[in-house]
Amino acid sequence: MSVTADIDLSYIPFWGRPQQERVDAFRRLRQLEHPVFCYENRVPFIKQGKGYYALVRHADVTEASRNAGIFSSEPTSNSIPDMPNWLAVYFGSMINMDDPKHARLRRIVSRAFTPRILAKMEEDLQRAAGEIVAGAPDSGDFVREIAARLPVQVICDMMGIPPDRHDEILRHTNVILANADAEYSGITVDFSHPDAPFRRWPVARGLLKLIKAGRALSLLAQRLGRERRKHPTGDLTSLLVNGEEHLTSQELGSFFILLVVAGSETTRNAIAHGLKLLTDNPQQRGLLLSDFEKHVPGTVEEVIRYATPVIQFRRTLTRDHTMNGMDYRAGDKVLLFYNSANRDEAVFTDPDVFDITRSPNPHIGFGGPGPHYCLGAHLARREITVMFRELFTRYPGIRTVGEPDYLLSNFVNGVKHVDYAW
């Protein structure tokens, strides 16, 4: 159990509390002398194993990220329980690997993120963002109409996937990142129960939906890979499946799931959080609009820090280790809570203040230093920048209306819906 009786990070309703309550809870955890030991989610059909340590301080998260030989991404980094084989076949991507397996895959897929390719994409990014914003209605759901569309389009264009599949892919990514949210997963939680148990059969249905979504995306990528092996076109899929070093069909399927989930969902959430933050902080918004090109880089970094779209990843100790006065044992699990590290008072002055001029801003919203730093960080920054430029150039009065509907998740700080108006 948590050392602090009313803060159990494995208690799903905790992640449904108002965001400020969670910010305050993590502040209290950072003030403790040692990390907090929590129980895992009690999810039927998945072997849970023992609990985990919560790393909530910037120094601890960055040190663990840097020391990949001790804080391992194997057997899994994107799941608190060990991932069973029937899920790993679709979701066992390179983020769940250590070197040398991780280094080989990262070397291959890094072909997608060379400066030459990213520079070539700049014009396409600008055109796509312009079309999305110009075609949006005067009001509606900002996530559906605007924020979710650009990242999916960019990744599908990179892979060579036609536009008529974009909505299907978006639906599948919503299911994959649904976590405990009933809207996308169908999983229900009994919030009235002191332990908030998952209801067994809705969980079974939710896991079935997850498997179907993963399988659909994997098969789509594998079919495309087989076509590109026979008839290369120069798109990313062609680069990944041809050449002396290339991805197998299974590796291509897993990588596509990683790319579309990490690349589209997190970026869309940053864009949605960004508009909400700039609506709630009119002085910061005015500063941005007073000199957009000067202030947009700082705005993007501060949105990533403040919102932290990816809440946490897991690591597993490969051997006994002492870090910042805490003894860990081989086999211990730790969760790297980026959302807490990005509000650490020891690193950030007034961390709960949204400040687009913050400098320096050593946030770890793209993961800490080390081999697993986000490959697509530069692309994500460009997408957010281009979308903000289009929005505030065409419609400087655009704003969110009301409060967002947030995803119930301990993994992604997601915005499902938020209304907007010009």
CA-based shape: globular
Q: Figure out the total of helices.
A: 16
Low-confidence stretches: none
Radius of gyration (CA) equals 21 Å
Structural class, from helix and strand content? alpha+beta
- How many strands? 10
Let me know the largest β-sheet. 5 strands, mixed
- The residue-averaged pLDDT reads 89
In what range is the share of β-strand residues?
Answer: 5-15%
Query: Roughly what percent helix?
Result: 40-55%
Major beta sheet, strand line-up: 1-2-8-5-3
Order of helices and strands: HEEHEHHHEHHHHHHHHHEEEEHHEE
Distance between the termini: 47 Å
List keywords for this structure.
five-stranded mixed sheet, 422 residues, alpha+beta, 49% helix, single chain, 16 helices
Would you kindly provide a brief summary of this structure?
This protein is an alpha+beta fold and 422 residues long. It has 16 helices and ten strands. The longest helix has 32 residues, at 249-280.
Architecture overview:
With 422 residues, this protein is α+β, with helices and mostly antiparallel strands. Helices cover 49% and strands 10% of the residues. The protein is built from 16 helices and ten strands. It has helices at residues 19-30, 58-66, 85-91, 101-109, 115-134, 142-147, 149-159, 166-176, 182-185, 200-230, 236-241, 249-280, 282-290, 292-307, 338-341, 377-394, and strands at 36-38, 52-55, 71-72, 139-141, 312-317, 321-323, 326-328, 333-337, 399-406, 415-421. It has a five-stranded mixed beta sheet. The mean pLDDT is 89.
